[in-house]
Amino acid sequence: MNGKRIDGREANEMRKVEVKLDVISRADGSAEFAFGKTRALACVYGPKALYPKHLQEYEKGILRCRYSMAPYSVDERKPPAPDRRSIELSKVIRLALEPAIFLEDYPKTGIDVYIEITEADGSTRVTAINAASLALALAGIPMRDLVCACSVGKIDNTLVVDLNGKEDNFSEADVVFAMMPSKGKITLLQMDGVLTREEFNKLIEMAKQNCYKIYEIQKNALKEKYKVSE
Amino acid sequence: MESYILELLEKGKRIDGRKLDEFRRIEIKENVVSKAEGSASVKIGETHVMAGVKLELGAPFPDSPNEGILVVNAEFTPLASPEFEPGPPGEDEIELARVVDRGIRESECIELEKLCIQPGEKVWCIFVDISVLNHHGNLLDASALASFIALKNTRIPKVEDGKMVRGEYQGILPVVHTPITVSVAKIGKNLLVDTNFEEEKIVESKVCVTTREDGKICAVQKQGSGYISFEELEEILDLSFEKAKEIRKMVE
Asked: Of A115, B7, B131, B215, which has the most beta carbons under 10 Å away?
């Protein structure tokens, strides 16, 4: 790190973002989102009648999420069965998306969000959330706002945005963050490492600003799809 | 019950008479299991959690050949609540164990590099097992506290000819920091600490913050299906720093 990061980026520069919509024809909504090499495929099925019946809730629908990493997405093959990390991430992703969805409009139903990481190079859970947010919107599920997510961290005493895999391994601290931008509400926040209060606050501010950028990208992708051709 | 809790919160009160920023009575017992290398029992009000530490010799991870290994596991025993059932760990148990793990690991409170016996070959593996024995809310704070205290009184067994001698000890685990986890919950517009079982049913979101004695933050986890605003996050951090200071006084 001599002012630049290992992949030549500036501290507050995220990797190239790629968005593709409707990538899975069978799904009610689907999207692919990529930060550089990290790539997540998300699809949504539902709202649909929920079985087994004991899972149904009478006042609202329930959201189920499955985050999974493809065995070939990492350096050393990851066994396909869900590990403890995937189970935790599935939960935090669900809780990051849930505040945005009007689940109360769909009692007794379930909405399933399936996420597959096809290639992992750091920041997979935030990539997954961005993909899932778009897939939910495309499935026509009423939402309070899109959910935008990004990672920030501290490496070599520098605060940076969107950590790649190597940076993630060598970072002193990292924060994963998701918010509903137009509401200014945080829906995901996880941090580990050692940070002062000031650094933490600065990182949150960086993450917030970056989420606004991602918000524009997500909105533009959706607008592009529904553009009326002239 | 729900509306009663909300009604009281409007007036700044809670069902058990506490203030919003008041913990229940914390009761700590050390060395409660003689077979374990380290152990602790923590009660926060009626909530009861036990943590035990076992040490084994094992091979280090390839990416950290000179460091000991830390493994944290949690079990919500079926004793603790009618909602808990025996079986493989569920997502809440896994999340709790992983948040406790991060608090300990990232605070660098254990000097893992001092637990290497032969680089790349043999290191100490520290197994922290948490058993929730009575669930009356705020399991995370209780579990984190019990784990830390158990680690703090962990003795390292003697090693002879590369083998561990159980029951004979050469020293204590090098613990150099005091990470304390405090969870702040949000119900409506109210922020409260140490939620009890009834309150937890209507908690919208919760932020668990682990802080160190030098004012550093070492782990944060947002829980619950609600959201928090940036102003609330500031208040939550203030509150967790303040409460962690009080709890730290009890353990140092």
From this structure: A115
Long-range contacts of B30-38 (CB under 8 A, 24+ apart): B30/B149, B30/B153, B31/B153, B36/B150, B37/B154, B37/B155, B37/B156, B37/B157, B38/B150, B38/B151, B38/B152, B38/B153, B38/B154, B38/B155, B38/B173
Give how far Cα A109 sits from Cα of A61, A63, A102, Å.
5, 9, 12
The DSSP string of A118-146 is EE-SS-HHHHHHHHHHHHHHHTT--BSS-
Which residue in A has a C-alpha nearest to residue B234's C-alpha? A201
Residue A184 covered by a domain? yes
User: Cα separation of A90 and A109, whole Å?
Assistant: 19
B203 in A contact zone (CB under 8 Å): no
3-state secondary structure of B52: strand
Task: Measure the CA–CA gap between A211 and A133, rounded to whole angstroms.
Answer: 13
pLDDT, average across residues B191-202 = 95
Contact A149/B at CB under 8 A:
no
Residue B83 domain-assigned (yes or no):
yes
Q: Do A99 and B217 touch (CB under 8 A)?
A: no
- Please, which pLDDT band fits residue A227 given cuts at 50, 70 and 90? confident
Q: Are A62 and A110 in contact (CB under 8 A)?
A: yes
**Domain harbouring B238, CATH code:** 3.30.230.70
| CATH number, residue A194 | 3.30.230.70
Residue B13 lies in a domain: no
- 3-class DSSP assignment, residue B10: helix
Please give the tally of structural domains in chain B: 1
Q: Is A188 on the interface with B (CB under 8 A)?
A: yes
Domain range spanning residue B208?
A: 20-251
- Does B9 fall in a domain? no
With respect to residue A230, please indicate whether it lies within any of the assigned structural domains: no
Distance of CA B158 to the CA centre of its chain: 28
Tell me: pLDDT of B145 over 80: yes
Output the pLDDT for position A2: 57
Judged by a CB distance cut-off of 8 A, whether residue A21 touches chain B is: no
The total of structural domains in chain A comes to 1
CA distance B59 to B37: 19
Q: How far is A213 from chain B (nearest CA, A)?
A: 18
| Subunit contact B220:A173, Cβ cutoff 8 A | no
Using CB atoms within 10 A of its CB, is residue B62 exposed (0-12), middle (13-18) or buried (19+)? exposed
